[in-house]
């Protein structure tokens, strides 16, 4: 069940203006990348009181969809990602992946955080392959996959560079490769570009769109940027102040192929962004 209504354009990646369907897109709740959040509530107990972080959250994310989540600070955006990853259990309700209820930490998802969190003593390639070591992946398979991702993200020529030799954008590319090494059906991204300068962030938005199209991975992106959310996502989930609930789900209606500079000039983008801003009201999310 989807929380809230939709607005903006109605043409999605399978619509007439899309440049072809992304790989891996599927309907059906049992698809590997499908995410279900049904009546979820999360409460925390502090020394002084009980805090309700999320309440009555219902959402279905189709396999291969790109979903962005925006809302005021402290509304539970990152908590939602932790629930999907199985790092946190809901106080009430249910979270599922591929039709299977999430009971604990999931090892089949990818996670990218605001900081790249690379090991300074390992090269870019070896930071990517750390994922394979942890998971016990066959070495040749992991190396081949790492080479594929390095090429896909434009890191060729920097495979043997150490983190201090890489720009912030390149470090995040390494972190993205590491998260995608095991071909996860779902990729969770928590403010991955928040610390980057504006130009690098725009470039990473365009790269992320291309990588998403090529991999067909289901993406859930938490961001404080309305522009980033509307430029990247199929739909934007707008959350209320704490206790966080879904105010509305805004359908962006842009073609699947998106280059940032051109995308932000399109009327569909402006319609969706205006609606998101109106829903957020006095809650400042930055831009």
UniProtKB/TrEMBL annotation:
Pfam families: ABC_tran. It comes from the Bacteria. This is ABC transporter ATP-binding protein. InterPro entries: AAA+_ATPase (IPR003593), ABC_transporter-like_ATP-bd (IPR003439), ABC_transporter-like_CS (IPR017871), ABC_transporter_ATP-bind (IPR050166), P-loop_NTPase (IPR027417). Gene3D superfamilies: P-loop containing nucleotide triphosphate hydrolases. The keyword ATP-binding applies. GO terms for molecular function: ATP binding; ATP hydrolysis activity. Residues 1-31 are annotated as: Disordered. Keywords: ATP-binding, Nucleotide-binding, Transport. Residues 37-266 form the ABC transporter domain. PANTHER family: ALIPHATIC SULFONATES IMPORT ATP-BINDING PROTEIN SSUB (PTHR42788:SF13), TAURINE IMPORT ATP-BINDING PROTEIN-RELATED (PTHR42788).
